[in-house]
Design goal:
It is built from 18 helices and 7 strands. By secondary structure, the chain is an alpha+beta fold. A hairpin with a 7-residue loop joins strand 4 and strand 5 (about 120-130). The chain is globular and about 100 Å long.
């Protein structure tokens, strides 16, 4: 069973802007390893918000002190799907359960799993405001009104109403159950559509165990007979991972590693023990199912096939497995290329990135403030062009004009002061030397990353050529024939790297020669026609 996770959290006033920067990897989170984890981001914002950070900063400022600045869905995504496929189901989720009449921003992150280095942990953070914007994002109320308490008697001058599906206690609890079930259905539908033999469940382990018992699956009952695994948290997970890396996780070192984890934290020790037991149970279950499958295949072979005779159906299945391995390798390389691309800084962006590093993020923040100043200035001009002098403005428009004018003057003064400080620092001898050093390091790093990217692209092209060969040969194998082999059948396999492609091609060619010889022998003995060269031959519904 695949991993399922969906949670709904509420964010306090004063935390929204920083959290938006964190999930979107902006501001002080725009560099380093965290930035490399970002796969995709998107937002639905009112016209006055230049970014999600600006919107949620206003939520921190204008929402009542004891109110909620935002709500957030955190969901685990299927790592068996591509990034594009995951983007689609996240968009489907947002459209279905939040809607475009609310302000939202989401980001998809992908990073190696804490204790499973070969597996990607891909997930999404979806922040949203519960207020329903009935007049559309292009006409949304100004920040000072947007977050006011809703008054049905005066809806134009007060704030937007909140969606009680998320704010009412009873409503939100029941709604969350429905959403969890909906997300389970969405993932399982995608698995089915892509031919992936996996399912997720939003049910508890106890509920899943009861269903397995009702179905008579004793092995699954045994596998599910465990307590739910605790969540360590980032800090404790990092310390635990470091102990494992330093001391080893193999059979020889496991006792010493577990002892050190126990001394550090009994909670972490319990989680690792649970993981080991779960892995053992999963391996045991897989082994039992494999043994049962082999037994059934053997019984079938003994009934239907003579010695050294191989079913075309079995051969086709092996080619499907090989095709899956190649697709997984291509997908893994594509993910690696995306991660590398995120570390490569375009030459035209290097100066601003270096300046941001030198000023500890002040340069980027100052740029945003400059954009906000321009936006305010534009709005002031718009008001003047529409209403003329202040004296002729309606009271509410004059209040808005005065408010924005004060904000403009304050922001401009602060901007000019910070800009002068940064320019003075950068133009100094020490600043200039540091700037050149960082530019040089960034150029060298980008060059190295570009070489890695080119190598992966070249390797992936070879994998794609191999995929074509697999599909071409697989289509030639008639699943309804039984091939009397001259030599022992060996299924093609795929290892890792460029050498694996060479080995797989050799296996395929050897198998193809074996099948051709078997076909010729069958023609002589059984008058069975085997034509591997006829591309137009209908293959009875078998397709890759």
């Amino acid at each position: 069973m695949a991993t399922y996770h969906l949670s709904l959290k509420n964010g306090k006033v004063g935390t929204a802007e920083q959290h938006a920067d964190y999930i979107l990897r902006e501001g002080r989170y725009s560099g380093g390893k965290r930035a490399e984890e970002l796969v995709y981001k998107d937002a639905n914002l009112p016209h006055w918000a230049m970014s999600a950070s600006v919107f949620f900063a206003c939520a921190d400022k204008y929402e009542r002190t004891n109110g909620r600045a935002y709500a957030e869905f955190e969901i685990a995504l299927p790592n068996e799907l591509t990034h594009e496929e995951n983007k689609k189901i996240v968009n489907d989720f947002v459209n279905k359960h939040i809607g475009n009449n609310k302000v939202w921003a989401y980001a998809i992150h992908s990073k190696p799993a804490t204790f499973d280095y070969d597996e990607e942990q891909i997930h999404a953070h979806i922040m949203f405001c519960e207020r329903v914007v009935e007049d559309g994002m292009t006409k949304a109320k100004s920040p000072s009104k947007f977050f006011k308490r809703f008054n049905p008697k005066n809806p134009q001058n007060d704030g937007y109403q909140k969606d009680r599906r998320f704010s009412g206690f009873v409503e939100s609890k029941e709604n969350l159950k429905l959403i969890r079930q909906s997300w389970e259905d969405m993932i399982n539908t995608e698995y089915k559509n892509h031919g992936i033999d996996k399912v997720v469940s939003c049910k508890t382990l106890a509920a899943q165990r009861d269903l397995a018992a009702a179905a008579g699956d004793e092995d699954m009952v045994e596998f599910l007979n465990r307590t739910p695994q605790e969540h360590l948290g980032p800090a404790l997970a990092y310390k635990t991972k470091k102990i494992i890396e330093e001391n080893g996780y193999d059979q020889e070192n496991i006792d010493n590693t577990l002892d050190k984890i126990y001394q550090m934290s009994t909670k972490a020790f319990g989680v690792i023990i649970d993981k080991i037991q779960k892995a053992h149970k999963a391996a045991e279950l897989k082994y039992k199912k494999q043994i049962e499958l082999e037994r059934k295949e053997k019984e079938y072979s003994e009934k239907r096939l003579a010695e050294l005779t191989m079913s075309g159906e079995i051969i086709r299945k092996d080619f499907v497995k090989l095709l899956g391995s190649v697709n997984n390798q291509i997908k893994y390389n594509e993910s690696a290329i995306i991660r590398i691309e995120k570390t490569i800084t375009p030459i035209d962006q290097m100066p601003s990135k270096v300046l941001n590093i030198m000023t500890s993020g002040r340069f980027e923040k100052l740029q945003k403030e400059g954009e906000a100043i321009i936006s305010l200035k534009t709005r002031l001009k718009e008001i003047l062009s529409l209403y003329g002098p202040k004296e002729s403005m309606p009271n509410n428009i004059r209040a808005e004009y005065n408010e924005k004018g004060r904000a403009y003057r304050i922001l401009k003064a602060d901007y000019e002061k910070q800009d002068a400080e940064i320019r003075s620092f950068i133009s100094s001898e020490a600043g200039d030397k540091w700037y050149k050093k960082l530019i040089k390091e960034m150029l060298e790093q980008s060059k190295d990353m570009e070489n890695q990217k080119l190598n992966l692209l070249k390797l992936n092209n070879e994998y794609r050529e191999l995929r074509k060969e697999i599909i071409e040969v697989g289509r030639k194998i008639n699943p309804h024939l039984h091939y009397r082999m001259k030599s022992k059948y060996r299924a093609p396999e795929l290892g890792n790297g460029a050498s694996a492609i060479f080995d797989a091609r050799n296996d395929i060619n050897n198998l193809l020669r074996n099948i051709i010889n078997a076909g010729r022998e069958n023609i002589k003995q059984n008058k069975m026609t085997v034509d591997l060269s006829n591309k137009n031959k209908k293959n009875n519904g078998w397709e890759f």
